[in-house]
Amino acid sequence: MDSVSWRFGLAWVAVVYCAETCAGTMFDDTHRFHLGYARQDADAKVTSSVDPLPPIEIDLEDDLDADNSSDSILAAYHWRFADKWSLGLTYQRLKLDGDGLAARDFNFDGDVYRAGAQVDTEFTMDTYRLDVAYTIFRNDQWQVRVGAGVHTFVIDTSLAAQLSLEGGEETPLVNEFRQDSADVLAPLPNLRAGVTFLVTPRWSVGGSAGWLSLNIGDFSGSYTYADVATDYRITERFGIGASYQIAKLDAKIDDSDGFDEVNIQLSGPSIYLVYGF
Q: Which fold has domain 27-276?
């Protein structure tokens, strides 16, 4: 092979190498969008207590034969508005439905449900996350960030059933349709930290975790979560990713004649598309 061919070959190798190593990495994105699918396994327990009935915690799966998992859309946006500062927005929904027989007697929102009643259950939890992060360390392969933000949970539990109620002397029991609901709005601040490692300029792996609790006025709650994720850029801007998350939420709202409470543990994977620039 002549010298010209050798030089051409070396130049081509240099171009290919630089395309992989000299170009910007995911760390350089100013804007990044995630859109995907999440599968969440849920262990959800709710209480809606009205005096003078005793408070009873209801396990949606064990007591009402409701779903214990949910498929949902995951959407996120990340904006690096300064060299070391970024803003993140995330939305996700959990929905658990059921149409089974009550496994035991319980009360909910002031009504008594008897074992064996056919209960329609609808539980939804919309999660909105807003956080600001600061990069405390970064080099060509590693990035470590800390941040703070707010997770806002909008939770609605609705039960509907044909109940047997006490009537008069001629009809001691009256069948009546009832529908009860309990809403919990839980805005919880959160402290978080995360680390990302670039295996190559187009392939990253990382993890993050966060926790904080709040007790103010009639509201008390806590939220803890951790996740691991990996992203791969198919092109400079488009990519795919996968993650796995575990989380635990406890939220309670007191009012003049009782309280509403939600305790839920979540875990599950997600897959998503990425667009960054």
A: Lipocalin (2.40.128)
CA separation for the pair 263, 58 (Å, rounded): 10
Nearest Cα neighbor of 213 from 242, 158, 267, 252 is: 252
pLDDT in tens, 129-167: 999 999 999 999 999 999 999 999 999 999 999 766 555
> 175 exposed, middle or buried (CB, 10 Å; 0-12, 13-18, 19+)?
exposed
Element (H, E) at 258: strand 258-276
Q: Give domain limits for the chain.
A: 27-276
Question: How far is the C-alpha of 258 from the C-alpha of 256, rounded, in Å?
Answer: 6
Q: Burial-class residue 126 by CB neighbours within 10 Å (0-12, 13-18, 19+).
A: middle
Q: Distance (Å, rounded) from C-alpha 29 to C-alpha 183?
A: 39
Angle formed at CA 252 by CA 116 and CA 40, multiple of 5 degrees: 65
> Is-contact 38 71, C-beta < 8 A?
yes
Res 18: pLDDT: 42
Tell me if the bond preceding 52 is cis, omega within 30° of 0. Answer: yes
Q: How far is CA 43 from CA 197, 250, 251, in A?
A: 32, 12, 14
Q: Which two tokens stand for residue 276?
A: 């960054």
- Please tell me the distance from the alpha carbon of residue 135 to that of residue 28, in angstroms, as a whole number: 12
| Token pair belonging to 28 | 């350089």
